[in-house]
From TrEMBL:
This is Tyr recombinase domain-containing protein. It comes from the Eukaryota. Residues 29-184 form the Tyr recombinase domain. Keywords: DNA recombination, DNA-binding. Signal peptide: none annotated. Pfam families: Phage_integrase (PF00589). InterPro entries: DNA_brk_join_enz, Integrase-like_cat_sf, Integrase_catalytic, Tyrosine_recombinase_XerCD.
Length: 184
């Protein structure tokens, strides 16, 4: 939704023009979603040397319905490996309510452990840094995934794609009342 205090031109506050806000909302292009098969394909076929950080971000983002700024602020210390699953704490959220979620999505544990080994090894840290340099800003990292998968309209895979994809996957699985709590 357009914020009520948004100023778009020459110091004009558009909150005084509800029809204009409705027009913008109606015509705003929504972020596309990634399907389960697209997520699985990117996780299984993308090369870890080039896409490991993106894979970890994708899985954490989908599992926790994360906003891209939540991923940016996430530290390795916010993720606990409990052997069979990961427990992820999102301390800083838009709603100021910290979230905790667990994930055992596919090969997430293996990918996360591999990512940790890259982070702890000085020679492998360069691999992570090169990935960081290529995909910053994080808001565009989903367009990198879409481009890899050769999906149309790559620019439409925005930061909101994680939350939309996560909610869609849950709804398709038959989850109903917990959907709102899942996304915070």
């Amino acid at each position: 939704m357009v914020k009520s205090c948004l100023i778009i031109y020459d110091n004009i506050d558009i909150s005084k023009f509800p029809k204009l806000i409705a027009f913008f909302e109606k015509n705003r292009e929504k972020s596309k979603i990634l399907t389960k098969s697209e997520i699985d394909r990117s996780l299984s076929s993308a090369d870890d040397k080039e896409f490991l950080m993106i894979k970890v971000g994708l899985i954490l983002g989908i599992a926790g319905a994360c906003r891209t700024d939540e991923l940016v602020n996430l530290t390795v210390g916010d993720i606990e490996d409990v052997g069979f699953s990961l427990i992820v704490k999102i301390p800083n959220t838009k709603t100021k309510t910290p979230r905790i979620f667990g994930t055992d999505m596919g090969n997430m544990l293996e990918l996360f452990r591999k990512y940790l080994s890259f982070r702890s090894s000085p020679q492998q840290e360069n691999v992570v840094r090169s990935q960081l340099a290529r995909i910053i800003p994080w808001k565009k990292f989903l367009s990198v995934v879409a481009s890899y998968l050769k999906l149309p309209d790559v620019a439409c895979y925005t930061g909101h794609c994680l939350r939309r994809s996560s909610s869609t996957l849950l709804a398709d699985a038959g989850v109903d009342t917990t959907l709102k709590r899942h996304a915070g």
